[in-house]
Amino acid sequence: MTRIRDWLYTIGMASLSLLLFAIFCLLLTWNTLGDQGADESRSLHLSSGWQMHLGDLTAETGALAASADWMPYKFGDADSRLDGYRGYYWLRFRLPEQLRDEPNLHVQGFKHAELYTWSGQIYAFNMDRGIRLMNKELRWGMADLKPEDYGHHLYVRVYQDGGDPAEGLFRVGRMEHFLTQMLRHDAFRYLSCVVGLIAGMLAFILYALNRKDPIYLHFALFSVCVAYGSIIRAASLQLFADIPLLVYIQNIALSLGTGALLGFLAETFAGGWRIWFRRLAAAYYGYGAIVLGAAFIDDWLYHLMAEQLFAVTAVPLVLYILLALLRSGRHENRLETRLIMAGIWLLGIFTAVHYIDMNVVSISSRLFEPYPVAGALFKEAFVQLAVFAFILCLAGVLLVRYAKTHRQVKRYAQELAVKNDQLEAINSQRAEELRQRTEELQEAIQVTMDTMEEVVALEERNRIAHEMHDTVGHTLTATIMQMEVTKRLFDIDREAALQRLASAQDLVRSGLDQVRSSVRLMKDEAPAYDLRDAMIVLMRNTTQATQVEIEYSIDPLPQLPPGCSKVLYHALLEGLTNGMRHGRGTRFNCELTVGEDGVVLLLQNNGLPYDNAAYGFGLKAMNERVQLVGGSLRLSQSAEWGCELRVRLPLASTL
């Protein structure tokens, strides 16, 4: 199926090429219309009958006529007198009276020239030498002749700046006749320019749509160079846009166009061929930049580089391209390669025939009389036809490439649609799985929240129990001790027993107040209090209630958070309670010190020695509280004291 499509594209391109070629031939046929023989008879070519005077003369008709030293001169022959000459020289020619009815004189081929007749100066161009960069072969002018000028000499004042001698051309006739012939002669150039610009514009659009494929950009540059090279040599262009600089640097299109062509070919090859063609393209682009610089430096150097050196590299370059196409065609019989090969062969054959016609055998002159159209083709448009056919072949390559890209894009679109359907199915499946996972997660979150509520409730109950144990336990211990003393004194000293009973009653009231205070602390409603004063009050009340002896030493304390203050206060409370209840101590020593490593509470009693027994409920609760604020608790015995409680809180936790 692909081969059938390729052949269809080939047939379509061939049909389009034949159509455009037919249009070319029609225009060239129109170009041959008119009285060419009459045109030739009216042309005064500077080949015979001209005279020359080296050096400048006074620009007056009488002085020019009376001057001597006029020497025969013939254009087209090498004249050593003008080789490298710099300065003014004069030419003169007697205008024949039989051309008296022709009012205009067409002048071409001079860079600096003035024309004088019997009636005075009739033409002047660039004698002040303001225009330096100019192509004298394409520059033309028009002068008006009067009837009295015929039969007298036409004087031409020329300035030569050391370059090649002027190859001037003079034709006498009517202006409308010259313009008609000029437009007919340039018709195929305008058509080539339009075709090149349209092809370049379309290629630029394709490149803008697909910047990953630079072949469109190279073709666009090549087409623009061809269009520029075609239109800039049109003599009639001077009527619409007289820009001598653009005409002068026209040969830049050769180097830049060759670079664009090599860049185009590089995108049609693969592997090492592509690398070498890209290097050659970069080299010709750089060479074009150098030639452009030479155009502004020296005219001789510019023409040497733009024409002669370029022609030297053209032949091996064409051979290299043909070799690459042949080697590539053996491995890949692609339609693109065949089209490029056909275009290069056409260009080479047309160029060779044109060279033979211009330098070996004049085919155009032999064909012109019996076959005017064929003669015009050989003489005027053979190379342009070759370039035009070559552009058509390259355009065919672009069309094949674009069609192939279009098929690939279409195939990719189909594959993308399939992949999109698959992705939608996968997304639907993933969405369903995500919904199920979300429901499971919500259930797990609900279970976790219920569990957390139970844990919080349990922690709250434990906290309340610890608070009740710390606050009420000490008071009840002291009350029990008072009750035991009351029982022993009741039969011996009733008055003392009643006092002990009153003290127990006061302890119960104090315990009730402590319970209320603990409830407020649990609600975080307790007012701030001074830890040192609270500890002193606790030890004094304990001494009054239980008759135990308590010695203490408390350093000035920094501002402590309520949490740390509660930990230290309850540690002292638990230590006193356990020392009296379990250790049966009667004398206590309390020290609260502040050092660099933290706050240390030391509580010692003279009771039973500590036997490393497991912590009870109170000690466990105390140890948990100390650890929550980053501290440590240690219970031990010493030689002087039976039991020793040491609580250390780091300074970091107390700030």
UniProtKB/TrEMBL annotation:
Domain of life: Bacteria
Catalyzed reactions: ATP + protein L-histidine = ADP + protein N-phospho-L-histidine
Swiss-Prot/TrEMBL keywords: ATP-binding, Coiled coil, Kinase, Membrane, Nucleotide-binding, Phosphoprotein, Transferase, Transmembrane, Transmembrane helix, Two-component regulatory system
Every Signal transduction histidine kinase subgroup 3 dimerisation and phosphoacceptor domain range: 460-524
GO MF term list: kinase activity
EC numbers for this chain: 2.7.13.3
InterPro entries listed in its UniProt record: HATPase_C_sf, Sensor_HK_TwoCompSys, Sig_transdc_His_kin_sub3_dim/P
Name of the molecule in the record: histidine kinase
UniProt source species: Paenibacillus xanthanilyticus
Taxonomic placement: Bacteria, Bacillati, Bacillota, Bacilli, Bacillales
